[in-house]
Amino acid sequence: AYLDRIAAVDGSVHAYLHVNADEALATARDVDARRAAGEELHPLAGVPIAVKDVVVTQGMPSTAGSKILEGWVPPYDATLVEKIREAGLPILGKTNMDEFAMGSSTEHSAYGNTHNPWDLERIPGGSGGGSAAAVAAFTAPLAIGTDTGGSIRQPGAVTGTVGVKPTYGGVSRYGLIALASSLDQAGPVTRTVLDSALLHELIGGHDPRDSTSIPEPLPPLVEAAKQGALGDLSGVKVGVVSQLQGEGYQAGVQTRFEESLDLLRQAGAEVVEVSCPHFEYALAAYYLILPAEASSNLAKFDGMRFGLRVEPEEGPVTAERVMAATRGAGFGDEVKRRVILGTYALSAGYYDAYYGSAQKVRTLIQRDFDEAFAQVDVLVSPTAPTTAFKLGEKLDDPLAMYLNDVATIPANLAGIPGISVPNGLSDDGLPVGFQVLAPAKADDRLYRVGAALE
Ligand code: GLN
User: Ligand 1 in contact with 177 (CB < 6 A)?
Assistant: First the structure.
């Protein structure tokens, strides 16, 4: 049924870069047979899933939205993909994204735009716009995203889907094509909070192949979602981040946010305002740290090891010249912009002023969170300041594009978990997201509060 639906609507949504029809059907049939034979299977066995193209999948192309990886077929699976296959979820295919996950609209993909199913003229968010659009368009019931600065949560908000960024280290990064290693985290994109909890429990947990993976087991997420669904939040203290609301937020977004605060109060939660004074500098720090790490991570795309290789048109074929020709042809503008910015921020003489200062700001933001979580159990805000903007609207203005991440970035800088749950429609008829943040390793709180709002 999902493959039929993809055939019917993906021509206009373009959520998929690759459809894995034969293998998905084979997995579905195998699961059916095993179930008929009475085998005890994972609760999600047989439920199809779409995977963001930045996650490597054995035997299936993995381009990360870049021309430089066109035609590269990874020889191995990411840990999370291994877990998905073992549990018997048919993989429907790979989803579109901004090149190397740099962007907030999926317009930086080298393979064309993805359209928001709510209005095909609008962006589906980014960088994981393909995964969110697939879930919103009913071309996948579950999807995998990655969130370095909001790329699961912001697409969730603008497509009316649920998106979760787990605690840093909560889901293995082995087999993720790295953007910024200290910020990257994979997580679920689904239609309901309970679905996200089920998927998060499946893909999460310790992985010896990722040195930043958290050794202890995940908290009980499915249980928390079920508890939250009962609608009782008495004893829960909720902090509204003063810096992440009000001015700069679209009126309809702010109204829906305040209505949800009322729902939390009605469910018995205590709602207070909390100040995080250094959040003002989060975006600036992020857009130095991310390019710095990305410039280093992307150095491996040298025209020799993976994917594209372009030889210089004339002159000697040296390693350096092949690298320059390949990277010149294979990377898009946003990637080049960030590699140049990151290389500059890391260069001798500028390192302390830019990268060093950004790291200090990062510590201040972590302290803001520590102080806030000493007072409250969870923090809340709108997920994004606006609803989905029009395709092309911010494409020529990188700063305007970056501003869309203002509410999601602090969580990545601190390594804490966050969820975006659908928060109704704004006055323009487009979906709004409600963000819940919790302390590191307390991902269960996201599910309890998120499910109570559903
Ligand atoms: N929009 C952010 C950026 O462009 C988020 C990226 C992400 O989470 N992958 O960096």
Answer: no
> How far, in Å, from the CA of 287 to the mean position of ligand 1?
9
Name the residue with tokens 């996650």. Answer: 55
Q: What angle do CA 216, 195, 82 make, to 5 degrees?
A: 55
Q: What is the pLDDT of residues 181-199, one digit of tens each?
A: 999 999 999 999 999 999 9
Cα end-to-end span (Å), the chain: 26
Give yes or no for residue 291 CB within 6 A of ligand 1.
Answer: no
Ligand 1 neighbour 239 (Cβ under 6 A): no
| Residues recognised as catalytic | 52, 127, 151
For residue 306, the model assigns a pLDDT of 86
Tokens encoding 313: 């048109």
**CATH C-level class of 2-281+359-453:** alpha beta
Question: In which residue are the tokens 């995940």 written?
Answer: 218
> pLDDT class for 400, splitting at 50, 70, 90?
confident
Q: Which ipTM was obtained for this model?
A: 0.97
Q: What is the spatial distance between Cα 62 and Cα 52, in angstroms, rounded to a whole number?
A: 9
Q: Which residues contact 172 (CB under 8 A, 6 or more apart)?
A: 78, 79, 80, 186, 203, 205, 207, 209, 210, 213
Domain positions in the chain: 2-281+359-453
Residue nearest to atom 6 of ligand 1 (CA): 149
**Helix/strand/coil for 320:** helix
Give the distance (Å) from ligand 1 centre to CA of residue 27. Answer: 33
- Regarding the beta carbon of 290 and ligand 1, being less than 6 Å apart is answered yes
Contact call for residues 91 and 84 (beta carbons, < 8 A): yes
64's CB contacts (< 8 A; 6+ apart) are 53, 54, 97, 99, 100, 101, 177
